[in-house]
Please model this.
Amino acid sequence: MKRMMLISALLATLGLAACDRPAVVAVPVAPMAVPGPAGPQGETGNTGNTGNTGSTGSTGATGDTGSTGYTGATGTTGATGATGDTGYTGATGEKGKTGDGTTVIVVPAEPAK
Model:
């Protein structure tokens, strides 16, 4: 009995599915206009007017003055030079001769006139 109900349900489903077909609708094609032969070419148009020259732009602003530079560092003091060596003591002269009693007097020269 179970099989009988199953087979009946299958047949009913197939029978209903076969009947439910949508109808095919044929859409009529719209008539299309066919173009005729081309006409003669028209005359060439006039040349357009020349446009106006644009305005000259404004002069740009002057830039700011640059900052003053820094003062350079003071140089270091140079090193002190080395002290020279002490010179040698000169030789002692010989003892002079004793005079013979004559005195020499030196007379000064006359002044220039």
Summary: The chain is about 15% helix and 0% strand. Residues 2-19 form the longest helix (18 residues).
